[in-house]
């Protein structure tokens, strides 16, 4: 079947062959199909792989329209075969070629069946197939050599029950299939494919026409008998067919707009739209769509052109949807990427601009420069170990990525390290006289505290330096512990920093968190130093007795390290991690109850107790300090108000009996607030609102009189309702108007509106004089005090003018200061051997025990005094301590209880205006008690004349200021006998 021809011969043959098969168009090679053919030929000469890359649409299927013209595919295939032959021959000899005398495709009725795993092959399309079966491959090579390069390509059916999406598995299974088994798995309808190229096991096929397998001929390699299928007849001019095809075309055009994937195919198609028939269009659409293999096979098997087009339309529409989604995804991603890129670009540009303008070097360098600048003035005094840490951290900062979290940690750490006042101290003032003046300026009394501070300053002056000390101010609320702390700082010229440790349970608050924690912060002391900017501040630790008990770590122990002068020279904060010197800090703590302070802490403190104020002291504080500050705070002048002594006294006695003066301060503020309101009310409305009111009034008036005044052009007499302002202006006439203003002090006539401004100055003066004349001074005395502060809250502490039988006044100490209390005893019933004691009044265990002791001692004493008196043996007693709602405890009422029981037993009341306190032993000895000052103050407040204290408390009493002790007859006793004599003396 081969003939050897010369080169020129081949050329001639090729041209003749193509021109014979092509529809005649003048032989000018201008027909679209020929143009493509030529382009392929020329490309092929350069590169044979062209066919694999570019899919060429050239179905040869003779269309069902009965068009008998030679199909382009035949032309193309033959031309291509010829070109290949040329190549083959060229490789051997440039002078000879082999010309094929092959049968036409439709002559192939027995073909090798190549299984296709992914998609069916559509006529006109190329498909590279990996042929794994060596026998099949050999047969294909052989048939190509024999110039019978056609085979059947059949899609493999999915194995029943397998997932069609697992392609590789399916492929593996197919290569194992042989003979009958393979035959059964192949779809009946396939494509006659031309073998265009074989490289290794890669066989490039080009689809030609539809086939149907009829029977198996040989099993290995699988050869089958086939029927060549023809499309059903159709009417080319059918409208529905046309419409469907146009829809397919327009959809393909849309796909082209959005997806570049199939642009080549669509372009090729649209360029040569005239050459394509409906069946080709259907095949083309189905082939380029991404539909799955079964859908594609459906199209391949469909011989009805109309139905095939419809199926294809479905597929391309789906393709369109997919490409839309693809476009949306691409757009979203692109937007995201471009946004980030834009930001990055702008940032970089900004940096570059700043650098160029010398505004800033890069971030890290700027930061380092900032820290170095901050450190520079302190460098001399900064300890070397701290300098070293700062240097290390600065180097680290340069190495870290600016966006990393560690960078931020290092930056914050450096911020703290460089912000601390390393080695900087405020100049202390050791002038004792100045300090005394400052302390007296701020607080009345408190001589103990002031004396202690002055001693401290004196020592500092002699030594030339003051050492950190811990002073603990203890006392009831509102006695001025916190405010004296502030005064001490002022007197010493130290910076003041206050923090409260009430309820503090977290050690980290004092010692800081470790830097490894997120949001770590240094402790209170480091915060204090940063805040005050000196290393020797006065730190007031408030409410140290209310320190919480931590779950992890004990805050008291942490405070110990902070306060202990031995340890705090090298205080180590967890966050800072470098020792800091706190030895120059002066610590002042405040507490209400010293007993509540943890012992190791208390041990290191110098406790100064502030007992509370007596009426006299409160009077001074109220008049000279509280009233003054409150008056200033309310913006009231001394001329406007007078608070009489009697009012203060009533306030202190009936409203504010507690030890401190905070409540007194509140009451004085209340009075002044009320006075302020009263003054403002009396002064009347302010000028702006007066003018507004006046204008409103005038508008109203002018409306009333406008008719008359405009006609007659007469002056309007306007009399101000408000005597203070009394100026009214009207605009009712075009003529000059006269305004008459009536003022109580001065009569001002204004001729025109402009004159109003000029007149306002003397008016203001007049108002001022008027105000001071009209506002009379507010005086507060005992009689009108309740108008300002309400009804008195305290009833007299004294229930009895003269205590009856069985009742004795005792003295008690509370956190709020001292107070007097009564102990009452009465007998419930009498009878032989009925002697017993029942105690009430919310007594604590100690007080209950104390009452039992008192019962025993009283019985013993009575036995000594009146041996025949069997009162205690035969009486059931009830002892009560009012007020019943207040819990009470402690042993100091022991002697009072005995006296009360003896009074009942002997049916004799105790001496008038007597109060006593003291713990009693079973043998009748009197033991010392606490709170002497508070109890003395309480006794005086209750109008007691005689007080009995244990003799062990004499020292405490002697230390009291003379004004506290004034007017009291005090007895110090060691034994109950002495009390007995004092209480039941027959004077
Ligand atoms: N001796 C005093 N002279 C003048 N003012 C005083 C005196 N004592 C207390 N004050 C005033 O009383 C008010 C309350 O005092 P401060 O707050 O210091 O009480 P505190 O003892 O710290 O109370 P707490 O225990 O409740 O904290 C302050 O305004 C203070 O100025």
From TrEMBL:
Query: What is annotated as the active site?
Result: 892, 935
Example of a GO MF term: serine-type endopeptidase activity
Q: Where in the cell is it found?
A: Mitochondrion matrix
Among the entry's GO cellular component annotations, what is one? mitochondrial matrix
Annotated catalysed reactions: Hydrolysis of proteins in presence of ATP
Disordered: region residues: 686-711
Swiss-Prot/TrEMBL keywords = ATP-binding, DNA-binding, Hydrolase, Mitochondrion, Nucleotide-binding, Protease, Serine protease
EC annotation from Swiss-Prot or TrEMBL? 3.4.21.53
Source organism, top-level taxon: Eukaryota
Q: How does it assemble?
A: Homohexamer or homoheptamer. Organized in a ring with a central cavity.
**What is the official name of this protein in its record?**
Lon protease homolog, mitochondrial
Source species:
Coptis chinensis
State the organism's lineage.
Eukaryota, Viridiplantae, Streptophyta, Embryophyta, Tracheophyta
């Amino acid at each position: 079947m081969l003939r050897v021809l010369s080169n020129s011969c081949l050329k001639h043959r090729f041209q003749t062959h193509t021109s014979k098969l092509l529809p005649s168009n003048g032989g000018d090679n201008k027909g679209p199909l020929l143009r493509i053919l030529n382009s392929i030929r020329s490309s092929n000469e350069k590169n044979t792989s062209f066919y694999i890359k570019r899919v060429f649409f050239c179905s040869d299927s003779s269309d069902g329209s009965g068009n008998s013209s030679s199909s382009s595919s035949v032309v193309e295939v033959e031309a291509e075969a010829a070109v290949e032959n040329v190549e083959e021959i060229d490789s051997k000899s440039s002078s000879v070629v082999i010309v094929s005398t092959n049968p036409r495709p439709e002559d192939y009725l027995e073909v090798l069946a190549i299984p296709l795993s992914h998609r069916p092959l559509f006529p006109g399309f190329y498909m590279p197939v990996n042929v794994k079966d060596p026998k099949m491959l050999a047969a294909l090579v052989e048939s190509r050599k024999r110039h019978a390069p056609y085979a059947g390509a059949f899609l493999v059916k999915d194995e029943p029950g397998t997932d069609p999406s697992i392609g590789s598995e399916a492929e593996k299974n197919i290569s194992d299939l042989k003979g009958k088994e393979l035959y059964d798995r192949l779809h009946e309808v396939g494509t006659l494919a031309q073998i265009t190229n074989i490289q290794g096991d890669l066989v490039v096929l080009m689809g030609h026409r539809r086939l149907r397998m009829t029977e198996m001929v040989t099993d290995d390699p699988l050869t089958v008998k086939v029927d060549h299928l023809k499309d059903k007849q159709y009417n080319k001019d059918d409208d529905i067919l046309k419409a469907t095809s146009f829809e397919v075309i327009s959809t393909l055009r849309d796909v082209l707009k959005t997806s570049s994937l199939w642009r080549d195919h669509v372009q090729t198609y649209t360029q040569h739209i005239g050459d394509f028939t409906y069946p080709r269009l259907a095949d083309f659409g189905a082939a380029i769509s991404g539909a799955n293999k079964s859908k594609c096979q459906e199209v391949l098997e469909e011989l009805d052109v109309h139905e095939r087009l419809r199926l294809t339309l479905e597929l391309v529409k789906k393709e369109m949807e997919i490409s839309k989604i693809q476009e949306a995804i691409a757009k979203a991603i692109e937007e995201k990427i471009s946004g980030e890129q834009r930001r990055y670009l702008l940032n970089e540009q900004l940096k570059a601009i700043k650098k160029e303008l010398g505004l800033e070097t890069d971030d890290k360098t700027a930061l380092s420069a900032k820290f170095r600048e901050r450190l520079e003035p302190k460098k001399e005094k900064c300890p070397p170990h701290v300098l070293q840490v700062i240097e290390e951290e600065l180097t680290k900062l340069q190495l870290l990525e600016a966006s990393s979290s560690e960078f931020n940690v290092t930056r914050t750490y450096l911020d703290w390290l460089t912000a601390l006042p390393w080695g900087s101290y405020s100049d202390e003032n050791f002038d004792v006289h100045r300090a005394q003046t400052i302390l007296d300026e701020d607080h009345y009394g408190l001589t103990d505290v002031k004396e202690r501070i002055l001693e401290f300053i004196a020592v500092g002056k002699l030594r030339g330096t003051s050492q950190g000390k811990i002073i603990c101010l203890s006392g009831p609320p509102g006695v001025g512990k916190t405010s004296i702390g502030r005064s001490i700082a002022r007197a010493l010229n130290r910076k003041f920093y206050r923090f409260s440790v009430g309820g503090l349970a977290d050690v980290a608050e004092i010692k800081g968190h470790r830097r490894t924690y997120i949001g770590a912060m240094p402790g209170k002391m480091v915060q204090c130093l940063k805040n005050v900017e000196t290393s020797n501040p006065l730190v007031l630790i408030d409410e140290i007795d209310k320190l919480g008990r931590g779950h992890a770590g004990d805050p008291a122990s942490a405070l110990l390290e902070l306060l202990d002068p031995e340890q705090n020279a090298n205080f180590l904060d967890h966050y800072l991690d470098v020792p800091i010197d706190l030895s120059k800090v002066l610590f002042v703590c405040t507490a209400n109850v010293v007993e509540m302070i943890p012992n190791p802490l208390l041990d290191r403190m110098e406790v100064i107790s502030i007992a509370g104020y007596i009426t006299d002291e409160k009077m001074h504080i109220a008049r000279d300090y509280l009233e003054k500050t409150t008056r200033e705070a309310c913006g009231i002048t001394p001329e406007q108000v007078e608070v009489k002594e009697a009012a203060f006294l009533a306030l202190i006695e009936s409203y504010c009996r507690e030890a401190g003066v905070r409540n007194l301060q509140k009451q004085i503020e209340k009075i002044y607030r009320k006075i302020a309101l009263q003054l403002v009310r009396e002064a009347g409305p302010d000028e702006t609102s007066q003018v507004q009111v006046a204008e409103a009034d005038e508008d109203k008036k002018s409306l009333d009189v406008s008719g008359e005044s405009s006609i007659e052009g007469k002056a309007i007499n306007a009399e101000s309702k408000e005597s203070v302002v009394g100026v009214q202006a009207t605009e009712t006439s075009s003529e000059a108007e006269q305004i008459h203003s009536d003022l109580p002090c001065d009569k001002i006539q204004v001729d025109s509106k402009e004159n109003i401004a000029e007149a306002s100055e003397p008016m203001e003066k007049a108002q001022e004089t008027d105000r001071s004349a009209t506002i009379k001074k507010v005086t507060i005395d005992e009689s009108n005090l309740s108008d300002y502060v309400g009804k008195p809250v305290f009833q007299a502490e004294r229930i009895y003018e003269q205590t009856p039988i069985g009742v004795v006044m005792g003295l008690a100490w509370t956190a709020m200061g001292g107070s007097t209390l009564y102990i009452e005893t009465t007998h419930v019933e009498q009878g032989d051997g009925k002697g017993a004691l029942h105690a009430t009044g919310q007594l604590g265990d100690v007080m209950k025990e104390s009452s039992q002791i008192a019962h025993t001692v009283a019985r013993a004493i009575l036995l000594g005094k009146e041996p025949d008196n069997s009162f205690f043996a035969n009486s059931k007693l009830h002892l009560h301590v009012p007020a019943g709602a207040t819990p009470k405890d402690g042993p100091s009422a022991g002697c009072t209880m005995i006296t009360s029981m003896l009074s009942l037993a002997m049916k004799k009341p105790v001496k008038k205006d007597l109060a006593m306190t003291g713990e009693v032993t079973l043998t009748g000895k009197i033991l010392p008690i606490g709170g002497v000052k508070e109890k003395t103050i309480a006794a005086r407040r209750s109008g007691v004349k005689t007080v009995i204290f244990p003799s062990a408390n004499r020292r405490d009493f002697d230390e009291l200021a003379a004004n506290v002790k004034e007017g009291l007859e005090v007895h110090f006793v060691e034994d109950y006998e002495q009390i007995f004599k004092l209480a039941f003396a027959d004077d």
